[in-house]
Amino acid sequence: MTDAASAASVPSHPAEKAVIVVGGGVAGLVAALECAKVGMSVTVLERDTRVGGVIRREDVGGVSVDLAADGFSTRGGVVSAVLDEVGLGGAVIRPDHGGRWIAGANGVAVLPAETVFGIPANAWADDVRRHIGWSGAWRAYLDRLRPPLTIGQEQSLGRLVRTRMGDRVRDRLVAPLSVGGYAVDPDDVLVDEVAPGLNAALTRTGSLAGAVAAVRAERDGGEDGLAGLSGGMSRIVDGLVARLSDFGVEIRTGAPVTGIGRAGAGDGRPWRVQTAADAVAADAVIVAVDEGAARALLADAAPQLASLAVDVAPTVPLESITLVLDAPGGAADRPGPVVHAVPGARRASTLLHQTGRWEEVRTEAGDNGLVARVTFGRPGVLPATAALDDAAATTMALAEASALLALPLDGVRLRGTHRYRYDQPPPATARGRAERATRARAALAAPGIALVGAWLAGTGLAQVVEDAVAQADALRRGVLFGGVAG
């Protein structure tokens, strides 16, 4: 968030500047707070009856569970800064780490320890051969005999792994993480984004396996941490809403915006936001909706955006089914807390064992309670549950949970279930994502308007928050210092 020195440099007239934020997801709320905290007059317009976007928490079978994001990356400290800002810094909790597992042709086994995004440092290690077999290990060993890349660098993670170590490493170790974790094919993942330093280490060490070992040594074995919030991730939404209220921000729910355009010469403010009820004049507009809605709303104000075409990984429709049930042993001795399926090996792509990850959920579920979220869908394939009614979808989810947890679930008592459908934009690591964001923002070609959201920043709360802060800061500087007409 913006520091006190930056806030102190704001001129004395920010309250005269009206900012409209279209969209009340986390990106919109964070951007609204960045403007409100320096004194600008801010209104948030949300078409739904609630704010928060995909961050939702519901009671399922007597247990309060997060339906989508249940944690956040601690990378860069950007989310932590927001939590401190809204008084939730002391509510941060850490998960019970049980590692990530992969479900494939040989059953369910833990992700090998000495890897970077599934790429092994030693193909002969027992935990690696469990997934790729002897033939896969021999093929991966050829990596040691191939010349390093000395001219240029491979950008595609999938192509790099396939070329150096073969299909089995790519398909059985790397693909489950990229498809199950981020809904993107490994061929569409940028090497330097998901594994910084790997290409340079490959040139230096002469092999991909050697590069993995070098990168791990430089990291001291550490990875970006995962954290959550006591009481669930929806508390960040509640905290943002309360903080915005402190600054007098008006949040209108059930207020769909139908268009954004230039105001008339005599309107006094340069922008006009049209809702179903009225038209609102503004000095600046922050558009915090999904890609399709942004293109439609800005069709007149920024026609270049509507026609913008960038080669990037597609948005993927997903469906998650949360199951709360009584199971023998409850959360004890189960794989997880995250199990990714080898693409095509199962109908589900990922299982999150929430009673295995969070102590609070385990306590609320009770001794024999088990809470699992089964996610369906992957690039190019509709969720297997898409055409099923609730009963059939629940039956499928139970069968997948049984296989991914290696736990018989026939005849268990199901306390409750919840279906949640959403669209997953490409992650920050996807090829073309950064270029699309740059071109989309350039297509606006107008002061006093900004675009924020996961379709530009990439999926993940840390990426969305960091991008929203940066864009809101640039916008308010332009409005307050850059001579944007009021």
Structure, explained:
Helices cover 36% and strands 22% of the residues. The chain has 18 helices and 22 strands. β14 and β15 form a beta hairpin. It starts with a helix and ends in a 5-residue tail after the last helix. Mean pLDDT is 89; it is low at 4-10.
Give the helix/strand layout.
Blueprint: H1 4-8, E1 18-22, H2 26-36, E2 41-45, E3 57-60, E4 63-66, E5 72-73, H3 78-85, E6 92-93, E7 100-104, E8 107-110, E9 115-116, E10 119-120, H4 126-141, H5 157-165, H6 167-182, H7 191-194, H8 198-205, H9 208-219, E11 226-229, H10 234-246, E12 250-252, E13 257-262, E14 271-275, E15 279-282, E16 284-287, H11 291-297, H12 303-306, E17 316-326, E18 338-341, E19 348-353, H13 354-357, H14 359-365, E20 369-376, H15 390-405, E21 413-424, H16 433-444, E22 449-451, H17 454-457, H18 461-481
Parallel strand pairs: 1-2, 1-16, 2-12, 7-18, 16-22
Antiparallel strand pairs: 3-4, 5-11, 6-11, 7-8, 9-10, 13-14, 14-15, 17-20, 17-21, 18-19, 19-20
In short:
The chain has 486 residues and is an alpha+beta fold. It is built from 18 helices and 22 strands.
Q: What is the straight-line distance between the termini?
A: 26 Å
**How many domains in all?**
3
| Major pleated sheet | 7 strands, mixed
How much is the average pLDDT?
Answer: 89
Can you tell me the CATH superfamily of the largest domain? FAD/NAD(P)-binding domain
Gross morphology: globular
The top-level CATH class of the largest domain is Alpha Beta
Number of helices: 18
Broad structural category? alpha+beta
Main β-sheet, spatial strand arrangement = 8-7-18-19-20-17-21
Task: Give the low-pLDDT segments.
Answer: 4-10
The count of strands amounts to: 22
Rg calc: 24 Å
The CATH topology of the largest domain, please? Answer: FAD/NAD(P)-binding domain
